[in-house]
Amino acid sequence: MASIVCNGVRFDAIRAVIFDKDGTLADSRQYLWHLGEKRADAIVQALKTASFEKFWLRPGRNVPPKFPKTGDFKPVLVQSPPFMGDLGGDPTSQTQQINSIDLALKTAILETFGCNQTSIDPAGRLAVGTREENEIAIASLIAETGYNLNQARSLVHAAFLAADQQLPRKAPLTPLFVGVIELVKSLSPLKLGILSSDTEANIQDFVETYQLSPYFSAIVGAQTGISKPNPKLLALACEALNIEPETALVIGDTSADTKLTPRSIGVTWGGSTIAQLGNVAAIAEQPADIQLCRS
To answer: What CATH number is given for 2-28+175-294 in this structure?
Structure first.
């Protein structure tokens, strides 16, 4: 066993270190922002194909929906124009209404992901949530307008798949943070694992792309029905490493990581604020803040 020190806080009797991936090992901010854009565009296009605008602009319905910010989603409807043809109003008015709905919907989708026009929230749903959680969140957003939930789930799932085809492999676009490889090497006398909300295929590709295979002996990716900070995920990682959970130290960039165990270090080098780390035992601003001390 060994001890690990981070900015004056000492963790004793450590046998293994379990890292989060995105935002901790990998700088995935640019990739995730583009992924959010592609997914939002694909969803809007899928809804256009499914005549989402006609759903809102049909006779007798108040339209178009206005999508408030995430966390306070209550569709606010404005009065529809006089009905003419399939949508209502003259052709110019129809186009303006459709564009208004598309823009409002895309903005709401991006906010649900945790994206704005230029950046991504490191603690947002796209950054820390599983693919399943993101699909459910967007389908629920659409269903709040009165759209059928099951249809929304199917549509969003297909749109996510379409967005996947528009981006190259993730791993080459998510480089290691400066100083991370040195940290990993310094901790290599211990057992090392990765616990991420990403798919295990993406984690494995990341490990191989950056030649980390010699250092990490276990990876645990997204699991159906559970997500961080569910302690079952930590138990899975510890089982894969053949250690007891109380001998593990978790290093991550959000409270979803640091809530897994009191023996955790929150990191800010990926853009997270101290507030986003929750009630964490220690905070590292750079990888060099974390030091191994052999017992």
So the answer is: 3.40.50.1000
